């Protein structure tokens, strides 16, 4: 019996096919990828969030290497599927020959039966080889796919986290929306990028944590499987879909015969039928599934909001418990959860229609080729094997062409993640583009020259402030609540964008800003005390001494204890930890925002004296409501909150002996 292809020569034929297909696929992917990244509405943001993986020196070799390997493996998968279709042709033709031999009887029948048997066992051997290669290929593909995904995810997470930290974008992105009103202000325009227009405002960035964690995971895993397909043969990707379409259209073209429709003979009918069938069904599917882009985007946002609300309860547990605020919290949580469910129902409704349509279309496609071919088979024009291969080629073509229809759901999820990651990158850039105070490094001195601070709505809090402090000077900032004391410190620290003027201070490493409640990082106590230095940089001995000096000797033995220290230490103890940090860091200038508000006056006195004695040359700037802090300072700055300010010396301060 004659086989459908020359199996003896197939290894070389397949290798040649693979080489040519790889060449074409590589060029096509590069060209299409370039065009999409340059000109399409979703390709541009996608390239923005993953482009560096393929271009940066640290990752590009691995990126291109793994991508090439995945392409080869995907194409090999397509080739094997093609060969399986020839195997099935031979198997069924062999069975048909054997059956005909049995029916015919006699010597000729016996010969046909033998031919059929030979063809059957030959097919089994072919299947054994193909199946082995198929399994091995699939295993390798799963591994390489995972390696690509993990590398991409690692690069994206590292990059997004660094970008979020860079220029304190994680803090300043809260002002991206608010800065809209100020875009028209002269000094804002002067300090912002020339390309920024008042209309060019990003709508802000919600839940960056979710974006960095969940959206990146989604882009890395769904993105790569959409391109190359999953591990199993049934899961197509764009590449395998296109390669299958090309390969199977040739088979279908060769096998499909003419069909007479309303008296007109249409050649290669199967081919046209599958194209028209899939085109029409896909257009309908896209129309049904279109709302999923928006709904998936919202699902991410609403889920993140709900989770953030839960985290807030955990963080504020003590406060909530004191207030007996469970009812309010529960209501808040449930209303956020209700929003998640409402959106989820909308997704389900669209998906019911979408999946229902796709499923019906795919079911019909199972019998469709038999219905079209059966007259030719009954007329004896084609053999059982040919019909079988036509049906399988139709099925493969249909699956491949339908990939874009069935995977539309995944595309919408991917698109939502890309939009969110692009939004984060955008907000990071805009956060950095917002104005910041001009800082000048100056050894052992602090100068504020013409500092003007406003609220986000443009109301002046401080107008043209000038202050000059030399080593050992200490300034206390006072004023009614809301007059802008904290905001001044925020501005000087480079957090508050609505500030103008020049600020000279010791270099970053020698200037320390302390907020009212010191931040306590996760980890052991030594990490908490040494922050923002690393514990090994300051050493255990230094940490122990600092703890003893700030009256926390009971903590000396617990340096390596891992606790949620922000919840274990009392506010007063946390403020003493902040003073320990001053002793460890030995800054040339320190700015403190009500840093002793939680300790009693005796302890406050002792802590200030400690700093003055240990670090007599350090410049102190304290924000304080208490008159007891005055005695540790040399000057007082009074803010009125409407722009005006007064600066006056403080007499008879016991700290005035600091320079002696
Ligand atoms: N993110 C913000 N958006 C809008 N307005 C803000 C923001 N942060 C602060 N403000 C406003 O800026 C003004 C100054 O606030 P700031 O916290 O500096 O006051 P303060 O003098 O430190 O007050 P207190 O003594 O109560 O700590 C207040 O009116 C406050 O409402």
Explain the overall architecture:
- This protein folds into 2 domains: 7-431, ABC transporter transmembrane region fold; 438-659, P-loop containing nucleotide triphosphate hydrolases (Rossmann fold).
- The strands form 3 sheets. The chain has a 6-stranded mixed sheet with strand order 8-9-10-6-11-12, sandwiched between helices.
- The termini are far apart.
- It is an alpha/beta fold.
- The protein contains 21 helices and 12 strands.
- Residues 180-203 and 653-660 have low confidence and may be disordered.
- Helices cover 63% and strands 10% of the residues.
Any descriptors?
alpha/beta; ABC transporter transmembrane region fold; 12 strands; 6-stranded mixed sheet; 21 helices; 10% strand; Rossmann fold; 660 residues; binds adenosine-5'-triphosphate; disordered C terminus; 4-stranded mixed sheet
Low-confidence stretches: 180-203, 653-660
Q: In angstroms, what is the radius of gyration? A: 36 Å
**Fourth-tier CATH superfamily name of the largest domain:** ABC transporter type 1, transmembrane domain
What would you call the structural class?
A: alpha/beta
């Amino acid at each position: 019996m004659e086989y459908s292809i020359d199996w003896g020569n197939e290894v070389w034929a397949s290798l040649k096919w693979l080489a040519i297909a790889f060449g074409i696929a590589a060029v096509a992917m590069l060209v299409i990828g370039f065009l999409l990244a340059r000109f399409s509405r979703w390709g541009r943001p996608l390239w923005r969030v993953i482009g560096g993986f393929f271009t940066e020196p640290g990752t590009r070799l691995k990126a291109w290497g793994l991508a090439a390997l995945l392409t080869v493996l995907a194409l090999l998968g397509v080739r094997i599927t093609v060969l399986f279709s020839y195997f099935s042709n031979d198997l069924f033709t062999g069975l048909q020959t054997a059956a005909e031999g049995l029916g015919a009887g006699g010597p000729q029948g016996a010969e046909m039966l033998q031919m059929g048997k030979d063809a059957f066992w030959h097919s089994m051997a072919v299947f054994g080889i193909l199946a082995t290669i198929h399994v091995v290929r699939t295993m390798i593909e799963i591994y390489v796919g995972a390696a690509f995904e993990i590398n991409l995810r690692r690069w994206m997470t590292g990059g997004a986290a660094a970008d979020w930290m860079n220029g304190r974008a994680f803090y300043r992105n809260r002002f991206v929306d608010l800065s809209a009103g100020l875009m028209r202000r002269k000094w804002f325009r002067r300090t912002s990028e020339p390309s920024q227009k008042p209309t060019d405002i990003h709508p802000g960035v919600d839940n960056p944590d979710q974006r960095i964690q969940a959206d990146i995971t989604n882009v890395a895993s769904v993105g790569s499987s959409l391109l190359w397909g999953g591990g199993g043969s049934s899961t197509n990707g764009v590449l395998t879909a296109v390669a299958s379409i090309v390969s199977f259209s040739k088979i279908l073209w060769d096998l499909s015969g003419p069909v007479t429709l309303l008296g007109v003979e249409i050649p290669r009918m199967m081919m046209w039928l599958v194209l028209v069938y899939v085109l029409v069904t896909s257009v309908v599917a896209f129309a049904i599934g279109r709302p999923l882009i928006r709904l998936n985007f919202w699902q991410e946002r609403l889920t993140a909001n709900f989770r953030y609300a839960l985290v807030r309860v955990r963080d504020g547990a003590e406060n909530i418990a004191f207030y007996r605020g469970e009812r309010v919290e529960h209501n808040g949580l449930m209303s956020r959860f209700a929003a998640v469910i409402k959106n989820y129902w909308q997704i389900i409704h669209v998906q019911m229609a979408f999946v229902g349509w796709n499923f019906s279309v795919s079911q019909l496609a199972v019998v469709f080729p038999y219905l079209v071919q059966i007259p030719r088979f009954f007329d004896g024009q084609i053999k059982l094997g040919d019909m079988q291969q036509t049906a399988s080629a139709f099925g493969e073509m249909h699956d491949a062409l339908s990939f874009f229809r069935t995977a539309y759901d995944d595309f919408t999820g991917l698109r939502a993640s890309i939009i969110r990651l692009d939004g984060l990158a955008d907000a990071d850039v805009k956060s950095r583009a917002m104005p910041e105070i001009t800082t000048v490094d100056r050894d052992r001195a602090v100068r504020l020259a013409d500092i003007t601070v406003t609220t986000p709505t443009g109301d002046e809090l401080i107008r043209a402030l000038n202050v000059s402090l030399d080593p050992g000077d200490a300034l206390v900032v006072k004023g009614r609540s809301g007059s802008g004391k904290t905001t001044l410190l925020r501005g000087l620290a480079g957090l508050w964008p609505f500030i103008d003027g020049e600020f000279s201070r010791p270099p970053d490493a020698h200037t320390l800003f302390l907020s009212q409640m010191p931040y306590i990082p996760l980890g052991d106590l030594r990490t908490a005390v040494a922050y923002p230095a690393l514990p090994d940089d300051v050493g255990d001995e230094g940490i122990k001494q600092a703890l003893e000096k700030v009256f926390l000797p009971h903590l000396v033995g617990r340096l390596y204890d891992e606790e949620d220290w922000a919840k274990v230490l009392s506010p007063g103890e946390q403020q003493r930890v902040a003073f320990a940090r001053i002793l460890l860091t030995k800054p040339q200038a320190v700015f403190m925002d009500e840093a002793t508000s939680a300790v009693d006056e005796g302890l406050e006195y002792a802590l200030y004296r400690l700093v003055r004695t240990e670090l007599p040359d350090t410049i102190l700037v304290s924000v304080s409501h208490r008159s007891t802090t005055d005695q540790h300072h040399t000057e007082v700055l009074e803010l009125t909150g409407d722009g005006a300010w007064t600066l006056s010396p403080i007499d008879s301060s016991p700290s005035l002996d600091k320079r002696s």
